[in-house]
Write a structure and sequence with these properties.
The complex is a heterotrimer of chains A (about 350), B (about 260) and C (about 280). Helices cover about 75% and strands about 0% of the residues of chain A. Chain A is mainly α. In chain A, helix 4 runs antiparallel to helix 7 (about 180-190). Chain A is globular. In chain B, the strands form three sheets. In chain B, strands 6-7-8-3-9-10 form a six-stranded mixed β-sheet, with helices on both faces. In chain B, strands 2-1-4-5 form a four-stranded antiparallel β-sheet, with helices on one face. Chain B has a two-stranded antiparallel sheet with strand order 11-12. Chain B has nine helices and twelve strands. Chain B starts with a strand and ends in a 7-residue tail after the last strand. Chain C has two domains: about 1-130, 3-Layer(aba) Sandwich (Rossmann fold); about 155-285, Rossmann fold (3-Layer(aba) Sandwich), CATH 3.40.50.1980. In chain C, helix 6 (about 135-155) packs parallel to helix 11 (about 260-275). Chain C is globular, with a radius of gyration of 20 Å. Classes of the chains: A mainly alpha (about 350), B alpha/beta (about 260), C alpha/beta (about 280). Chains in contact: A-B, A-C. The interface between A and C is medium-sized, with 35 and 32 residues.
Chain lengths: ~350, ~260, ~280
């Protein structure tokens, strides 16, 4: 019994170390190849003020400002989406649920597109996040009935319906503004290279989101049994479920606002993690965060390491690699059930 | 003090009542069986007592306090429900039973050693401990039922609500489980309210019987008072014969012989 | 004698120019399927014969009053047919589906898709022949050719400036060598830093921009001016273009519509890149 409890902690720590290694490696790749020791020196200097060697400012700017932001964004968005996905899959008891299922991403996309079409790209992120919040409010209002009942169907339907409506509005916007269609399409495909003035807001939102979800890790374990049994066992489903849905949707909205629509992370990572470590959320949630960050770092790294893929937005890469993987999961699950 | 006090309770969904005007009290060690023909809202009654459904009318008091004044978690510490069979993906039997300790545990840590001890005891009592590592969804219906009962016992409730707890068990297990529950009720000073289909099982173990027909209480009280041929006829629409012996009372419907 | 044009990217169909030259009536109801073609038509003084234009055809002023037949990407075939045109000027492969529909309906369609400045001039030839304004076409062409050669003359002696063209800031988009804007840059005495990419519009990440370190940074403004340029973020402060204040904006209409104004855009771009050679649009 003790070994079993210890194993998750060791595994989580090892995964965290793997993440750190990958992140540092990613800082060395780019148009200018910068050696690892330089990267480490830069990190030491910027984080801890330890001056190791003299490094040209261009290298410092490249590693710390440019690549650093990209890597940090990859980790924040990757973990945010993966944790949201885990939460959604448990709460809806649906292995096909992903963070975009309630249409939050469509709201954000519409907000961003309005920014592009009106030329107010300085407010892009704010408008996208506003779109996400409004679509969440709409879905909550429409699906309210089922938040307090045992059926999730109404909520899911509300999400799908709102998402469809917002997508239709988005298409209309693109058709009416064909000049900016290409810009919108590029944004939609998802990218970690959108310049963000400060990463602090999205970092804070995602961090708080992950912490809140972790707080309810044991409740999530019980909620996997179904709303009714969860109530019998002491989970205040009528309060916890809406809270978690709102928190994860805000996390998702924040991620989409800064990076566009990067799919499959919220869908695939929870499956991988569950396969490895089982179903205890106190373990799955941190691992999802770590694996989500790794997944996105690797996907983004591909676009920088493989010349052929350099023009491809990272959202396309996650879809290209995520969808066959997802098909494999379906196949393997089907085979097991037979 | 009474663990449970129900007065003039009407239960149902929205405005639609399914059971009306129920009054009963449950004390420690009592085993109350609710017997009724199919589909008469027995499950609704249990859900309302468990605090998951709002009553349409009447009052429920748990340990002297109104049911609505308890938080969900407090309720789960005192009331355990054994309900319908569910599909629990990915959990093994041990994990399922461990969830019974959820209302007693803190938010931030996993199950304690004490929790594990209680769970082990409960699983041993229902004789399912040897299957603790099996996937819950791969157990037989009877084994799943035992797991859920173990979970309810692990909750260490004061009031145990059971909805057809022996539906999928063979006769030996039916008696064994109900015997176990009755003993637990006496030992831990727990009250039990069970919806039981089988009138004979109910007669075997209950301290009180509640007959329900057409949304109304037909009879309530000690089994000898309630299980009369008159009441049985009204409940099931058939003639019954009562059989007594030193150990037990049981009933049998009078079926028409072929040549009558 | 048939008039054949062996140029890449230019397609001609259903036109028997012979008939024009022996006195058939010039087309009187012309529909333009792109803003650039609209501008060419008006520059050839055929504006009064234009009965329908694609959306965003807002130059010259008179073009705004013409009925709209929908966007460049999806022209409304029914609307076009309802205008009973005797000639439609289309734009390239993007519209191939609509061109086919129109032809099936018996409409005469001329399609041009200039990939560089030379092909813009050739397009003017084709269109002017199709509408029966050969003389005006020749005049317009030589006027534009003159601008082009003048620009090339005065910039020949200066070293080519490396320039990054910002099409959009969020996401950051620039042009590769498949866009005809790339050619405008070349003709203006510049080198597109993203020219090695075999694409039209393409996203660019900040690290790559930084490593390009262009001499000049030109923003294609869609009613944005240079101060909103992406490069004005703090992190780029040590880039050459920022330090030397070589950041400018050009109206998008001048660079994104293959037509006469592309040559105005050419001059403006050359002026930005080589201020010593051109001032206020005047070539020295």
């Amino acid at each position: 019994m003790k070994l079993l409890i210890q194993k998750p902690v060791i595994f989580i720590s090892l995964s965290a170390m793997l993440l750190a290694i990958i992140a540092i490696y990613m800082l060395t790749i780019g148009t200018a190849s910068i050696p690892v020791h330089t990267v480490l020196s830069i990190i030491l200097e910027k984080l801890l003020g330890i001056h190791n060697q003299d490094i040209p400012t261009t290298q410092q700017t490249i590693v710390w400002n440019f690549r650093g932001q990209r890597i940090a964004l990859a980790m924040i968005v990757g973990s945010g989406l993966a944790v949201s996905g885990t939460c959604f899959q448990t709460m809806f008891k649906n292995p096909l649920a992903d963070p975009f299922i309630l249409g939050v991403s469509s709201g954000a996309a519409l907000g961003a597109s309005i920014a592009i079409v009106t030329g107010r790209t300085d407010c892009m992120i704010v408008l996208a996040f506003t779109g996400a919040i409004l679509s969440l409010a709409m879905v909550y209002f429409l699906g309210q009935q089922s938040m307090h009942n045992s059926s999730d169907q109404q909520l899911l339907l509300a999400g799908i319906a709102c998402g469809a409506m917002l997508n239709a509005m988005l298409s209309a916007l693109m058709a009416l503004n064909s000049q900016q269609m290409q810009m919108i399409v590029f944004w939609l495909m998802g990218s970690l290279t959108n310049y963000v003035d400060t990463l602090m807001p999205v970092f804070v939102i995602v961090s708080i989101g992950v912490m809140v979800v972790m707080l309810f890790a044991r409740d999530l374990d019980v909620m996997a049994l179904g709303d009714e049994d969860a109530r019998f066992l002491g989970v205040d489903v009528d309060k916890v479920k809406p809270l978690l849905l709102i928190v994860t949707s805000l996390m998702t909205g924040a991620c989409v606002s800064v990076s566009g629509i990067i799919g499959f992370i919220g869908l695939i990572v929870p499956h991988i993690v569950r396969k490895i470590v089982g179903t205890t959320h106190l373990v799955i949630l941190p691992l999802s965060a770590i694996f989500g960050a790794i997944f996105l770092l690797l996907a983004d790294g591909l676009t920088r390491m493989v010349p052929l893929m350099s023009g491809i937005p990272v959202g396309v890469v996650t879809a290209l690699f995520g969808s066959p993987f997802f098909l494999y999961i379906l196949y393997a699950t089907g085979r097991r059930l037979r | 003090m009474d663990i449970l006090q129900i007065q003039s309770l009407t239960v149902g969904y929205g405005a639609k009542a399914v059971l009306e005007n129920i009054s009963l009290t449950a004390k420690e060690g009592e085993f109350i069986s609710v017997v009724a023909p199919n589909g008469t809202g027995k499950t609704t009654l249990l859900k309302t007592i468990a605090g998951v459904l709002l009553p349409i009318n009447g009052s429920i008091h748990l340990n002297g306090k109104n049911l609505s004044s308890y938080s969900r978690r407090e309720l789960a510490r005192q009331i355990a429900v054994v309900g319908a069979d569910i599909l629990a993906p990915g959990y093994d039997a041990l994990q399922m039973v461990l969830m019974g300790r959820f209302p007693h545990s803190s938010r931030f840590s996993g199950p304690s050693a004490n929790d594990h001890a209680i769970v082990e005891a409960a699983m041993e009592d229902v004789d399912i401990w040897h299957k603790r590592r099996c996937q819950y969804s791969e157990l037989s219906q009877g084994e799943r039922q035992k797991v859920i009962i173990a979970r309810a016992l692990a909750q260490q409730p004061q009031l145990l609500l059971l909805d057809e707890p022996t539906a999928h068990l063979d006769i030996a297990n039916q008696f064994a489980i109900l015997q176990l529950i009755k003993q637990a009720a006496l030992q831990t000073e727990m009250a039990v309210i069970a919806v039981i289909h089988d009138i004979n099982l109910a007669l075997e173990f209950s301290t009180k019987l509640l007959f329900v027909k057409n949304s109304q209480v037909l009879a309530y009280g000690n089994p000898e008072k309630v299980a009369t041929t008159a009441n049985l006829k009204e409940l099931y629409g058939m003639d019954f014969t009562l059989y007594h012996d030193a150990a037990a009372t049981y009933v049998r419907p009078n079926l028409k012989k072929e040549d009558e | 004698m048939f008039f054949t044009i062996p140029h890449k990217g230019i397609e001609q169909s259903n036109i028997d120019i012979n008939k024009d030259s022996i006195g058939r009536e010039k087309p009187q109801r012309i529909v333009s399927l792109s803003p650039g073609n609209t501008e060419i038509l008006f520059a050839l003084s055929a504006g009064d014969r234009v009965v329908g234009v694609a959306s965003y055809s807002d130059y010259p002023e008179d073009a705004k009053n013409k009925p709209s037949i929908g966007g460049y990407h999806a022209p409304d075939v029914e609307k076009i047919l309802s205008l009973a045109p005797d000639l439609v000027i289309a734009m390239g492969e993007v519209q191939v589906k609509y061109i086919q529909s129109l032809k099936r309906a018996g409409i005469v369609v001329v399609s041009v898709e200039p990939k560089n400045m030379q092909e813009i001039l050739d397009a003017i030839d084709i269109i002017s022949a199709a509408i029966g304004e050969q003389e005006r076409g020749v005049a317009l062409r030589s006027e534009l050719e003159h601008k082009l050669s003048e620009v090339r003359r005065v910039t020949a002696n200066s070293t080519s400036k490396r320039v990054f063209l910002e099409v959009w800031d969020s996401p950051l988009l620039t042009v590769g060598n498949k866009s005809f804007i790339n050619d405008i840059i070349n003709q203006a005495g510049g080198i597109n830093v993203a020219a090695e990419r075999n694409v039209d519009y393409t996203p660019c990440d900040i690290e790559t921009l930084y490593s390009y370190d262009p001499d000049a940074y030109v923003v294609i403004s869609h009613s944005r001016n240079a101060s909103r340029a992406f490069i004005n973020k703090a992190d780029f402060a040590d880039m050459a273009a920022v330090k030397n204040q070589q950041i400018a904006a050009i109206n998008d209409d001048l660079l994104t519509r293959p037509g006469p104004r592309s040559f105005t855009g050419l001059v403006k771009l050359a002026e930005i890149l080589h201020p010593e050679a051109i001032k206020d649009g005047e070539i020295k």
